[in-house]
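We read letters as residues; the integers encode the fold. Take this protein.
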Amino acid sequence: MKHVIAFVFFVYNLPVFVSAQTIDPPKEKPVITGAERTEVYLPMLKGKAVALFANHTSQVNGIHLADTLLKRGIRIVKIFGPEHGFRGTAGAGEKVSNQTDSATGIPVLSLYGDRKKPKPEDLKDVDVIVFDIQDVGVRFYTFISSLEEFMEAAFEFKKPLLLLDRPNPNGFYVDGPVLNKKYKSFVGMQPIPIVYGMTTAEYAMMLTGENLLSEKANAYANYFKNIQEHHPDTPYHFQVIKC
């Protein structure tokens, strides 16, 4: 099976210049996140054993992705959680243990505890992985580090990865020093600026496009492109939910 990253390009409208004429401003277009495009990715999940890599921000209109998939008959066999845990209740830097999610009864494996990368046995019973986490676009947020480690494991074990993208609240600029490789850690794994101006999917594209993953992982990194629209003047309510 091919290894898949579904990602979102945000297409911006170019300005149109007119003279001696008044026109009404264009209506705002709604932001469409990757998670909302169920018609695109649900067919890839039907009849499959699905693993989620998600947290409390993996929502659309207040409904969590896990609930959406379960309601559509998708079989979620396990959930992977990043820093702060699947439900976002752990503190910054706090070690998170494996547990069973009380709301769904699905086992949750922590990737911010004893280990930060899935083991072969963690993915043995998984057909496809879905990643959906709201990021903030700064290097020291560990979500992109968790994604990188997960990509290594997924591609190494030949598992498809669907990455459902979301807008970057700091995606309109780049700022700060580029990380010196000798200071590489889980709060900074790649030589990028502090504010790096990419969505999560664009960051994933950079990792594979620039051969920043291991040689073994890069050998299996193929793509499925999911094109969306995002008007730059449209307000977007970022999914930061109090649990």
